[in-house]
Specification:
Rossmann fold; 3 domains; 17 helices; 453 residues; 7-stranded parallel beta sheet; alpha/beta
């Protein structure tokens, strides 16, 4: 296993021929789209920029792909937590690094992370971009953003209407073209799938499939499989247990859940149709599968668009149904018609490639760079009253999905180790009991305007 000990960002960038971008992450993961987004952004712009990385609270070793990018010669990554400093100490160190070693700061931090907010809470220094990778959640730090990079239109709409900033550019999730060398029939054999089966692939965290009212992914697809005997559902993320095993048993084992996978080449190879997760969509997985010319079907949430990705693909390749009935009809038509699958797969691949691969992605990146000021400033606009809308209500209803990971309680717990030992117990008691006006509640209670403030 690679050592956790980080390398160190240099204290000066004198003599560097290319502008330097400092990427700030809370914690880089081995799986999921968040870390891959950073990796690909760096790869796409490595000819124009030199890249540095700071993590504020890395847990475990840096994932291999990021280590390969940032740790050549051990000169481009530092972990602020390695020193054992408290929040103020980490923030001051981050501010120092940014001013001594960077020309632009890119924040990829988790929504609860206060270290970047403290570090960049005063003017001057390099301009700061907040990459809005958690656009469906409450997050801290819009006041330190000289520009917000939104990954999709639904997220940008919330940025402009609910986060009190007017500087936003769309920066599509960068993807990398990878030629598949996996033999389709061999992959099916490894996964125990018949050669003539129509494979419905879905990839997401198991939480994104949790039922909410009429939004029940597993029930919907089970009904489809009962009508289409040649179809098989293959899922990466959920475990083959509980409701997933029960659903599989009801259709003769034609639902196969493989849990979290770090290598999904076989799964992309065997797929005939991709089903986006709902009620929570999984954007990166959808886009990566579309690059394999696999037709995709999603369920658009027309009342609360932030929870689906219907704005991601448009025109002839628009694939998000607006109702469960339309969703079932579209999937059924694709199962029955191989030529329709081929045509729709080709269309969506073309559109996704145009936006998310080079050179198209580079155009969006250049537009983002053009709106940056020459130095950092603080933007605190007057807060305008906002009425509760469908996004707020839908998010409140999904508290069981979000409250465990994105509550104020979680924020305190994540930062607890940064406080002196004598303060931790007091903080915990106050947080649980609401003493002295510190009332800590699950995020699901914030159904109003505060959630997107």
């Amino acid at each position: 296993m690679a050592s956790k000990q980080p390398c160190h960002v240099p204290s000066t960038h004198s003599g560097v021929s290319k502008p330097r971008i400092l990427h700030v992450m809370t914690n880089a993961f081995g799986t999921g789209g968040h870390t891959r987004l950073v990796e690909r952004l760096v790869v796409n712009t490595s000819e124009q920029y030199e890249h540095l990385l700071v993590t504020t609270a890395q847990r475990g070793p840096l994932p291999d792909r990021l280590r390969g990018i940032f740790c050549s010669g051990c000169s481009k990554w530092t972990d602020l937590a390695a020193s054992g400093a408290d929040l103020i100490g980490r923030s001051l160190r981050l501010r120092q690094i940014s001013r001594e070693a960077a020309d632009i700061v890119f924040l990829h931090a988790h929504p609860y992370d206060v270290v970047p907010l403290l570090a960049f809470g005063i003017p001057d220094g390099p301009p700061v971009i907040v990459l809005n990778h958690a656009d469906h959640l409450f997050w801290l730090g819009v006041s330190v953003a000289d520009a917000v990079a939104d990954i999709r239109l639904a997220g940008q709409n919330l940025t402009l209407t609910r986060r009190n900033t007017n500087v936003s550019e769309i920066l599509p999730i960068p993807l990398v073209e990878r030629e598949s060398s996996v033999d389709r029939l061999a992959a099916r054999k490894r996964l125990g799938i018949d050669d003539d089966a129509v494979v419905l692939l879905t990839i997401a965290s198991h939480l994104k499939y949790s039922p909410l009212g009429e939004y029940n992914f597993l029930d919907t697809v089970t009904a489809l499989l009962k009508r289409s005997k040649q179809a098989v559902l293959v899922a990466c993320g959920p475990q083959h247990a509980g409701a997933w095993k029960e659903a599989s048993d009801s259709v003769g084992g034609r639902i196969k859940a493989y849990g979290v996978q770090t290598n999904i080449s076989d799964f992309h190879s065997v797929a005939d149709i991709y089903l986006d997760s709902f009620p929570y969509a999984s954007l990166t997985s959808l886009l990566e599968t579309a690059l394999h010319a696999v037709p995709v079907i999603g369920l658009a949430n027309t009342a609360a668009p932030i929870f689906s990705d219907g704005s991601t693909v448009e025109g002839d390749a628009w694939t998000h149904a607006t109702s469960l009935e339309e969703y079932v009809d579209r999937v059924g038509a694709l199962i029955a018609d191989p030529e329709l699958r081929r045509v729709q797969g080709s269309k969506i691949r073309e559109q996704v490639a145009a936006r998310h691969l080079l050179p198209g992605w580079q155009h969006s990146f250049s537009k983002l760079m053009e709106v940056l000021p020459s130095s950092h400033s603080i933007c605190i606009k007057a807060k305008q009253p906002q009425s509760v809308d469908a996004n707020d209500l839908f998010l409140a209803s999904m508290g069981k999905l979000t409250s465990g990971r994105h509550s104020i309680n979680t924020s305190l717990r994540k930062h607890g180790g940064c406080f002196p030992v004598k303060d931790r117990f007091t903080l915990l008691v106050k947080g649980i009991l609401g003493i002295d006006g510190i009332r800590v509640l699950p995020v699901s209670t914030y159904a109003g305007k505060e959630f997107f403030s």
